[in-house]
Amino acid sequence: MGLQTLDRAVAVLRALGHAGEAGLRLVDLQQAAGLAKPTMHRLATALAAHGLVALDPETRRYRLGHELAILGWSVAHREQDLRTAAMHSATVLADETGDTVFVVVRSGLDSVCIERHTGAYPIKALTVEIGTRRALCVGAGGLAMLACLPEAECDSILEAVAERAKTQSRATPAQIRAAIRAARKSGYSVSENFVTEGVRAVSVAIRDYRGHPIAAIGVAAIQPRIPASRIAALAKSLERERRMIESRLLAVQAPRRTGKKAGGKARRP
To answer: Which domain holds residue 212?
Structure first.
């Protein structure tokens, strides 16, 4: 497979990842990859033959295939470690706050939701589903991660996702940049009406052992549930759980980084 064909295949898989369960028609995939219909059909057929995409015979829509899930189970464990490390904290925060807690990970220029827990408060802010993929500047989690990056890298990402952000976010570029600057100062991001009108979210970034932002955990609720007077308290709880998550990740990943056997001593969170 040539590099051009590989790039096209990756573009198709990413487009299907964005589409989620709804899937895409062949014409949509053509637009995503910029290919002629016969070429797109051959590529989709080849991906389907390997189980990487699946065609619904009734709707004639393509979706990501089961083989991708199998490959995912075989991947290096960092992402699996992260979800395991964050799951308990998300549950604790949902019980403590009564609101919706989400965990997103960075995937290139995007954020992807890998965990969501809802609290007891009857009005839920369900603005993101597990598997939802958004441009990195959309939502409190992505903003928290961007705020941890060098300004030059952050600017480059904002430029690259600008067109997609217009369709995914209600915020203007100026509002997004202001939110990132505020997050750099405070240590947490706030998204207010950026994704869904009437919803406010607070989030903090999760870093790996090198200090790179790899994920974020946040709380979202309708605006009356998160008045300005409550933001600092939520940020404090998020910061507490962020430290717990990073400690769990360090405990799991340290033996692999240092080459020590799993039976060696490890700090427990």
So the answer is: 78-258
